[in-house]
Amino acid sequence: MNQDVIPVTETALLVVDLQNDFLHPEGAYARGGLAEPAIAALPQRLKPLAEALRAKGGWVVSTQFTLVPGKDGEPIISPHLKALRPFLRKGDFCPGAWGHQLVDALQPADLSVEKVAYSAFYMTRLEWVLRKSGIRRLLVGGIVTNGGVASTVRDAHVRDIDVTVLEDGCAAFSAETHATAIAALRPVCHIATIGEALAEIAVA
Predict the structure, then answer these.
(1) d(CA 62, CA 32)
(2) Continuous H helices in 93-165
(3) Rounded Cα–Cα distance for residues 59 and 51 (Å)
């Protein structure tokens, strides 16, 4: 899967935005009528990989999409997002709130980074904590393939971070959109399955 031998101890599963407000039946997106089975299945699909990495000294890093509370606690929402998701309201994706948290199946993350845009590198401390922690390789899973995953992977690529996208560890709101995004990412990263990643970790 990867020709360069980077130790498991320098490898992290980067979990992009698998948060209660996105996935849980009582979260913000479910309230807004946005539920997708392929997305809901991701935590249980990624859980064995997270456990295998932890057992071998690797890392689990979570990114959390964040709506920063402004005056009177009202969330600061970009105009394009407000147009796409008019159901978002006060308390959704709020730092420290239940909806903002990583889903239970993948807890606990070794490192967590709040993000305010598609890319987990944009105006965040992600690159700093990865460098300081000695993490040189990312196995990326999460949502959505064509949004947060794609933007984060491209930003990792320009930072010379070794990246593998887990094709069956990501999802979008349609299978076609997911497949198109994976195809577009092939020039800038490795593509693998969760099973292939698990097999590599098992013999590391």
Answers:
(1) 24
(2) 126-133, 150-158
(3) 10
Burial of 171 (0-12, 13-18, 19+ CB in 10 A): buried
Is the confidence at residue 1, as pLDDT, over 90? no
pTM score of the predicted model: 0.95
Check if the beta carbon of residue 158 is closer than 8 Å to that of residue 188.
Answer: no
Residue 143, pLDDT > 80, answer yes
Q: 183-201 burial by CB neighbour count: b if 16+ within 10 A, else e? A: eebeeebbebebebbeebb
Instruction: Please tell me the predicted confidence (pLDDT) of residue 4.
Output: 64
DSSP 118: S
pLDDT band of residue 105 (cuts 50, 70, 90) is: very high
Q: Which of 150, 196, 179 is nearest to 48 (CA)?
A: 196
Which two three-digit tokens encode residue 100? Answer: 């903002």
Contact between residue 148 and residue 17 where contact means Cβ atoms under 8 Å apart: yes
Mean pLDDT value of segment 139-144 = 98
Residue 2 pLDDT greater than 50, yes or no? no
Give the CATH number of domain 8-64+103-202.
Answer: 3.40.50.850
Domain boundaries, the chain: 8-64+103-202
Neighbours of 106 (CB within 10 A): 22
Q: Does position 97 have pLDDT exceeding 70, yes or no? A: yes
7 Ramachandran zone, left/alpha/beta (phi>0; psi -120 to 50)? beta
